[in-house]
Every structure is written in C-alpha cells, then in structure tokens.
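Escalation from tier 1.

The customer reports that the assembly of two entities below gives different structure tokens on two consecutive runs. Tier 1 could not reproduce it. I'm attaching the input and our single run for tier 2 to review.
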Amino acid sequence: MSDSGSEKAVIRLQVNGRELEGVAEPRRLLSDFIRHDLGMTGTHVGCEHGVCGACTILLDGDAVRSCLMFAVQAEGSVITTIEGLGQTRDDMDVIQRAFWESHGLQCGFCTPGMVLATKDLLERTPMPTDDQIREGLAGNMCRCTGYVFIVKAVKAAAEELNARASVDG
Amino acid sequence: MKPARFRYFAPTTIEEVVSLLAEYGDESKLLAGGQSLVPLMNIRLSQPAVLIDLNRVTALDYVTKEDDRLEIGALTRHRAVAESKLVQERFPAAAQAAGHIGYPAIRNRGTIGGTLAHADPVAEMPCIAVLNDCEIVATSSSGSRTIRASDFFHGYFTTSLEPTEFVSSVRFTSRPASHGWGFSEFARKSGDFALSAAAVDVIFDGGAVTQVSIAIAGASDRPVRAPLTEAALVGTTLSRSEIEQAVSNLSSELDPPSDAHASSDFRTHLAQIMTERALLAAAQSER
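Tier 1 run:
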C-alpha cells in the first residue's frame, strides 16, 4: 500500500505519448499538476468544482474532469490533453479543424474541454444526433457562442471521421 | 480554491481499507469517484485529515449474478452500470437511472458505492436502492453486514454507516420477466442535479398489477416510497386513467421541504408528474 502521507510524492504518468514525472503533495489537483508542474497550459481551469468542463482531459481514454482528481491518483495512468491533438494549423486533429471551420469557438476558453469531450463522445457514438451531441456536451459550458455552432462542429467532425473510416475500411 | 492538506493512503486490498478505517475512522474520508467529495474539498467545506483512496482496490469493481441476485461492487463506475448488459437485463431501472447521473465525464468517474454513501436526497441511485429495498453491504475490520436501503438513508447526506465501515457492494433482486419499470427525472438542464425523480417497478399477472413499488427523490431529506399510491394501483391494469387517478392522491403522502431551488408545492407537483411518467413507461414495458 502506498502511503505518501502529506509529503510530496513522485508521480509518473504518460501524457500525450510521453513518459513524464513530477513531484506534488497529495492535495495537488491533477488540473494544477498538468498546468503548473508539467507546464502544459492547454488544460483550462474554470470553476474548479466540476461544473464547467473546461479542465476535461482523457484519462485512460475516458473524458474526466481533471479538477476533481488529485495528481497522485494519476500515477501510472495514460493521459491525453489538448496538446496531444494537433499543435499547429497544419496538423490539427479532425475535431479541432471542425471547430475551427464551423466557428465552434469564440474566446476559446472552453474549447480544449469541448474538443476532448467530443473525442469521448464520438468514440462511443460515431454518428450522434443533435440531441446526443447536446447531451454528450451538457457538462461543458460555453459562455460566448451559444451551442449551435458547437453542435454543427461536432456533426462535421463525425461526418469527416466516418468518411475516413469508410475509405480506410 | 485548493483543498486543505491531508494524509493520503492508496490501499490496494479491502483488508488494507478496513484497517485504515479502524485506525483513522472519524478523521478520514473515503475517496471513490470523487465527483461529490472533491468539489467539497476544493471549496473547503470538507477538510478530512486523512484521505483513503479506493480507486486501486480493483476487487470492488464488478457486476455479478448469482441465482436471482445481481451484485454490483462499490467501485463500479456509473457508466459501467449504465452500459452493463447484466444490469440492463436484471434490473433495467438501475441501468437507466445510472445514465441520468451528471454528465458523461462525471459518469466515467463516479461510483455506485460513492453515491449511496454520499446520500444526496436528489441522487438517482439512492432512489433506485429504496425502490425494491435492496441490500447495501457495509464492511469493516470486524466483517460485513447487510443493511436494507430502507434503514440505510437517515437524512440529508446521512446514513447508518459507522465511521469504521464502508459500502463494499450493493445487492439487488433480479426482476422477473413479467415486470414493468420506469424512471423519470426533472432537472433544469441535462445532467444538472435533479429537482425530482421517480422510479417504479411493477409486477404483472395476466395483465393485472399484483405488486407496485414507487420510489421518489427530491420530495424529502432522503428517497422515499409511496405506499398508499402503490396500494391503490394493485389490481389495476395500469391504464392511463388508473394511473392519473392514483397519482392525483400522491400529494397526501408527500410533504417536501421548500428550499432555494423549489417550493414544497412545486416539488409535490414535479413528484406527481415524474411518477406518472414512470408509471406510463412501466405500463408500456413488455409483459
């Protein structure tokens, strides 16, 4: 049994395909660990109590709120943050490109969480209806655009991913 | 908005969990999915001295059947409960209710044991637990005992668990093929805390109702049954008019508190509508 007490512990995990480690006290939230200790500020922190969805990451493939986990809990896990998708205009992920092309963002604060929640949604529901998209992203708040263009972006991403899958298949 | 300091333990076996509870009891909190506890810690409404993280106790993550029993381990995530074929077959209302909890990212982490022990009166799984009065297994260093759901919930965020016990599993009785069920919930937005929810379970014999259970969340400081309305529906065929008639008297056995979210009258009104919708769904189930 690991007992890190209240002292700082070394945390090793895989982030966006890279083996990384950091040192943190048990009370360090995973969201803060990613931003401050690992230096990846793409994961945004909005409400810090699980309401806004801005801090959404993929933990072992599933969308989770990184503000509702302690960094020590992520020891040994595989994490994807927004930096794990495209980093530049030329290598954008399908979902990122769809958000861009469909005007699915304005200020961009909610976008990393939106994109990763969309990734989780489309992996389980490859061709979602509008209602399924709204339900799937209900835990992610946008205070700029409203959700019409976001739903449009998710639909466009789903279509593109399905078109690619049928070409590959 | 950062949690206060705590000592952190990450046991990997049930034996380690109960020995930590025996040692730290009252000053400790168990961390399961963390979807209710961590927000409270972030805003420092909860400041446990010791945190016992259950997430590495993989022996608590399972869904099994044995004879007519369906058992779900405490660490089973809401999403796994919602998607479990076994739960969908043997206790479909539980699977549907689990799919109503919070948002997808919440369901990926939140656990059935956690939500039962948290005992939020508007939460879905406590409502499902009292529906057929399931057994909640509480484990401590002196062994396990089963607690009926009707004895488990004592009020707002309060249960009959001792400080050295934790919820290790939940046991439901599988529903027979000739049963109808429904679950209906009202929240101001999809995934938000419910203002009201109702679950129903109906046993039919040749089209007539022989047994009805109705559980309602959001009408008291804990999930409640509605015995008078249940009795009124026995012997009916669960037609729309019979349902409407029975539900119109539901207010006589409910006395919800008024709070910032809804008045007592509005909560009663919602409970009636949710119960009616759940009963209508049950009437359409295969029998």
